[in-house]
């Protein structure tokens, strides 16, 4: 019950152990097509370019930034935790100019501030923000932020690593342009894959580049030849074959449960856990209306030995919870309810274990 990797579905672990076949095998190509369709469902998009980058969420992030940014581009970056800061770092390394919109850790991105910064920087071309900030457990209003960007002719880059499968994320309805996620959070798959979807506008922008993408591996125009092109699929890199079996299986599980049901389950388990945590005297970092059900950050009482508590949970209960990150290090715990981990028996175990250990 940490901030990821989450518990993996047993069926996903089984899928992982199937025989490895060639990545140009017709059977494998069929599975890739199914995988794309399943990812479109998870992202709620019709985007043709919907794939899994062969590396963890950070690579999906980098793929979006290196493909959409050219040197000199002005990018507005929202920062309300660890992952917004990484976005800034990406912009700078792409030769772009990062205009920061800072919010306190634990607060959602301020729509008003973003509106102001956009009107102060009419030449900015992209707006980048984290939908679900895993370092604090705050969810930001992706729909409104995207609307602001659209009104000003900007494209959006959205970090949905922790949101995908856990809270509503409607890529097409909200008109998000470049969205990346991860396999090991609410999808409860093995770490190491990063689902990415690009809108037709994002593809247009990539095609209009004046300079080549500086990363060969993450240049998505090269990757396309391998994920699509009926009958003429070509080698780009060796696919992580077994990890893709696992992702396929985890998405089948999500589809069978139904996205809305998955969101509802995360919410219900969160309410149960939050009730119990508050009864134990722990207070949430994030205000009620901006809390992510899948990431519960709570301050622990003063005088508590953070590391000792987490060690006792691990040794006595086989239960992992996350330490605080960045500004919350040594002050808060991050308790995950991601994917397969969002179950009643886990909530009960966590509350019982914390109660005993804290005493
Ligand atoms: C976990 C996470 C990432 C990074 O994903 P990795 O798979 O660890 O590379 C990026 N953004 C957010 C919001 C995350 O929670």
Short description:
The protein is of the alpha/beta class.
Structure in words:
The chain has 359 residues and is an alpha/beta fold. It has two domains: 10-255, Aspartate Aminotransferase, domain 2 (3-Layer(aba) Sandwich); 259-358, Aspartate Aminotransferase, domain 1, CATH 3.90.1150.10. 42% of the residues lie in helices and 15% in strands. The protein has twelve helices and 13 strands. It has helices at 10-16, 26-43, 57-68, 82-93, 111-120, 142-151, 200-207, 220-227, 241-257, 259-279, 306-317, 344-358, and strands at 49-53, 74-79, 97-102, 126-130, 132-133, 138-139, 155-159, 178-180, 194-198, 283-284, 295-299, 322-323, 332-336. A seven-stranded mixed beta sheet has the order 1-9-8-7-4-2-3, sandwiched between helices. A four-stranded antiparallel beta sheet has the order 10-11-13-12, covered by helices on one side. A two-stranded antiparallel sheet has the order 5-6. The longest helix is centred in the C-terminal third of the chain and has 21 residues, at 259-279. The radius of gyration is 20 Å and the shape is globular. The two termini are 21 Å apart. The model has no long low-confidence stretch (mean pLDDT 96). Pyridoxal-5'-phosphate is lined by residues 4, 56-58, 61, 83, 130, 134, 159, 161-162, 182, 191. Belongs to the class-V pyridoxal-phosphate-dependent aminotransferase family. Its cofactor is pyridoxal 5'-phosphate. InterPro entries: Aminotrans_V_dom (IPR000192), Aminotrans_V_PyrdxlP_BS (IPR020578), PyrdxlP-dep_Trfase (IPR015424), PyrdxlP-dep_Trfase_major (IPR015421), PyrdxlP-dep_Trfase_small (IPR015422), SP_NH2Trfase/AEP_transaminase (IPR024169). One of its GO terms (biological process) is glycine biosynthetic process, by transamination of glyoxylate. The modification N6-(pyridoxal phosphate)lysine is found at residue 185.
């Amino acid at each position: 019950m940490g901030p990821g990797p989450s518990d993996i579905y047993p069926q996903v672990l089984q899928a992982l152990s199937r025989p490895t076949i060639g990545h140009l095998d017709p059977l494998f190509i069929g599975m890739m097509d199914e995988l794309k369709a399943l990812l479109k469902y998870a992202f709620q998009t019709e985007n043709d370019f919907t794939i899994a980058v062969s590396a963890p969420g950070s690579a999906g992030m980098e793929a979006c930034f290196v493909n959409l940014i050219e040197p000199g581009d002005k990018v507005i970056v929202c920062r309300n935790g660890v992952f917004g800061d990484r976005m800034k770092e990406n912009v700078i390394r792409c030769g772009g100019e990062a205009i920061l919109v800072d919010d306190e850790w634990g607060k959602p991105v301020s729509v008003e501030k973003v509106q102001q910064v956009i009107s102060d920087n009419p030449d900015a071309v992209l707006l980048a923000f984290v939908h679900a900030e895993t370092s604090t457990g705050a969810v930001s209003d992706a729909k409104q932020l995207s609307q602001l960007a659209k009104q000003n002719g900007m494209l959006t880059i959205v970090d949905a690593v922790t949101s995908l499968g856990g809270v509503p994320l409607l890529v097409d309805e909200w008109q998000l342009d470049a969205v990346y996620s991860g396999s090991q959070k609410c999808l409860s798959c093995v770490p190491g894959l990063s689902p990415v979807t690009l809108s037709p506008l994002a593809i247009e922008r990539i095609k209009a580049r004046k300079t080549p993408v500086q990363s060969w591996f993450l240049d998505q125009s090269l990757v396309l030849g391998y994920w699509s092109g009926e009958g003429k699929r070509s080698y780009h890199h060796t696919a992580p074959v077994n990890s893709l079996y696992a992702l396929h299986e985890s998405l089948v599980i999500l589809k069978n449960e139904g996205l809305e049901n998955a969101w509802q389950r995360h919410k219900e388990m969160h309410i149960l856990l939050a009730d119990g945590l508050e009864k134990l005297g722990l207070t949430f970092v994030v205000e009620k209306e901006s809390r992510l059900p899948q990431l519960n950050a709570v301050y622990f009482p003063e005088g508590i030995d953070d590391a000792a508590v987490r060690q006792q949970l691990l040794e006595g209960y086989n239960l992992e919870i996350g330490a605080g990150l960045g500004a919350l290090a040594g002050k808060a715990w991050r308790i995950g309810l991601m994917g397969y981990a969002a179950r009643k028996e886990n909530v009960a175990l966590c509350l019982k274990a914390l109660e005993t250990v804290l005493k």
